[in-house]
Amino acid sequence: MTETTQSSGLAAPSAIGEWIGGMRRSAEFIVIPLFALFVSASLFSLFLLALGKSPQTFFELLWRGGFGTEFSWQNTLVRTAPLILTALCVAIPARLGLVIIGGEGALVLSGFTAAVVALPLLSWAPPFVVMPVMLLTAAITGALWIGAVGALRHYRGINETIASLLMFYIAVSILNFFVEGVLRDPSDPNKPSTAPIGPANMVGEIPGLHVHWGLAFGVVIAIVLGIVMSRTTFGFAARVTGGNVRAARAQGLPVGTLMVSATMIAGACAGVAGYFEVAAILGKANGSLIAGYGFTGILVSFLARHNPIAIAPVAVLFGGLAAAGGLIQRRMGLPDATVQVLQGLIFVVLLVSETLYGRFRLFDPEARG
Amino acid sequence: MSDILISRRRLLKTAAAGAALGVAPGLGAIGPAAAAGLTMGIIYVGPRDDFGWNQAHAVAAKALKAVPGITVVEEENVPETIAVQKTMESMIKLDGAKLIFATSFGYFDPHMIEMAKKFPDVEFRHAIGLWQADKHPKNAGSYYAYLHQAHYVDGIAAGLSTKTNKLGFIAAKPISSVLTNINAFALGVRKVNPNATIQLIFTGDWALPVREAEAANALADAGCDVLTCHVDSPKVVIETAEKRGIKCCGHNASQASLAPKGFITGAEYKWETIYKNFADLLAKGQKLPNFERGGYDKDYVQNTAFGAGATDAAKAAATAAIADLKANKPYVTGPIKDNKGKEVVAAGKTIDNYDNFLETTNYLVEGIVGSLT
């Protein structure tokens, strides 16, 4: 290995040398987050010891509840599905240097519009009409919602982080206003909801997995966006803009168009997540849409370093954490917030670990030996 | 509302809970505590120490844990999403639960129904009366306590403890189960004090502490000298009332300790009666009723012991009202008008305590200042 690297590192790098260099660079993006995970797990163990609980039991239960049985896997994957899509809502704008944290708002509002657009169709249209119309409506709603954040940023200079967060509260208010008002299903006197979309229009499960099709959609969209961001001129232009907006402008890149389209793609992803929450799980729109997937998605995206391909496995990790949370609560008598403490630790340690990039010669393809 | 936004609060709470748990003996064992006997799972939508709805159930669960042969597994803060389905499944598959109590409104449809279809040999019960024999699976059901009876008693005690004849009610949402409690309180107040009015404020959601505090202060500013509420956790309302030097009535669980000076009484669920009855039935190998409900007559509700805010007249009248309710005497008798002047119960007509009429309330009775929209 060493020999190959050395020889290829000379005058003209061979193909294999480039490959190894690439591997080294990628290794940095895997080793450092894994190290961060290890550090946060160690810190969390100290936290547990301070509470008088056994870290070993905790991690055993974490494994069993998240991944240890067939059911645990289903439980994990069900929670993974929306996380992939909401993480993409953070990751794509992040490539342009935009920090969007309001994906939850796009999810909530899109789930709502999807449920509402179905209402006039229910009496006459077959499922193969209703379902795509709902999906499309959700994606467009999300695209417009987060796209508006991108546009506000570009045209009015409004901070996209704050704008997207505040728009989450607007989305919730819009949902509540209609669901508790004109669009409320009169047949349900208690929990305010829109009228149900009916079992025929519900999305089924992936055969053999007992997880709805949202998971497959999420994985496919993540892979497609991964390719778009790394192999197309759009992705390249986005990365240049993220690196240095002024340089990108000087190069004649359409920065405004890029920002608006990236935020629209992001919003559409969160919108699709909202569609599946309604069409695969709830069957109607109501307050249950506000489940926090959009916020956990931020953590997923940061841990995946905003790489769409890496988002899927990281989402599985967070899905597993959430899935095991209940078991840990029940068996160890720990409060529900325990798993959130772990999530918070991971996030903080991860942000700190950002400073480690580029500090190790081991990962530098230019370095000799 | 969202995980990340309240994580700091939760973290603090965890630390506090952790400190308390730290002294408790017994590190978590990995297997469910008992192999034989019955394992039941109880699921809460919020924290178990919220001074409200969830705490009322959690206190009952504690009573169940003392029953030999019964293992109780509990999970708190479970949202009304697919998460609750997975929690039920996890309790069934990993803990061996044979009986699931789902205590939040939104758990029922579609989540509990789905799980009841999937696991026909497990019994599911939901803590609000939504189950219908013709529509829902036979291994599902509901149980409910008529808390409005205790609110009626609250009203009687409050009506005789006010000096300004203005009382304040802070409610979450204008839905039937809330309106029934508001109306019951107003009927109690007006029965003993026909000149009193009840100022009503809706906050819009189950847990909005800031808005609840604003509403409580606004009502106090408007001259109300007794406050009560129907929100998930009455803590803020009760504490604000006490701070303002006015009286209060509780809701859901005991808040007496929060207002040592002004507490009158409070409407409390007594879920342990229901849970214990269910446990006894199961121990005998009998099936649980699909639809179980009741009030004072079945010992399913109670009023908190009178506090320093209750006058002697209030104590006497409230105690008499409790005795009537225990004998299942109806408390809703005509004529009753709504607050727009329309007659809702004709003169001479009596509504039985078990009449479904009370569960489909969509009006406010006379004497309440406020509207549904």
Automatic annotation (TrEMBL), chain A:
GO cellular component terms, semicolon-separated: plasma membrane
Protein topology in the membrane: Multi-pass membrane protein
Transmembrane segments: 29-51, 71-91, 98-122, 128-149, 161-179, 211-234, 255-276, 288-304, 311-329, 341-360
Keywords noted in UniProt: Cell membrane, Membrane, Transmembrane, Transmembrane helix
Pfam families documented for this protein: BPD_transp_2
The keyword Plastid appears for this protein: no
Domain of life: Bacteria
Localisation per UniProt entry: Cell membrane
Name this protein carries in UniProt: ABC transporter permease
Record organism: Prosthecodimorpha hirschii
Phylogenetic classification of the source organism: Bacteria, Pseudomonadati, Pseudomonadota, Alphaproteobacteria, Hyphomicrobiales
Automatic annotation (TrEMBL), chain B:
UniProt keyword S-adenosyl-L-methionine present: no
PROSITE patterns to which the protein is assigned, alphabetical: TAT
Gene Ontology cellular component annotations, sorted alphabetically: plasma membrane
Pfam families for this protein: Bmp
Record-linked InterPro entries: ABC-Purine-Binding, PnrA-like, TAT_signal
Top-level taxon of the source organism: Bacteria
UniProt keyword annotations, A-Z: Signal
Domain ABC transporter substrate-binding protein PnrA-like intervals: 40-290
Name recorded for this polypeptide: ABC transporter substrate-binding protein
The organism of origin for this protein: Prosthecodimorpha hirschii
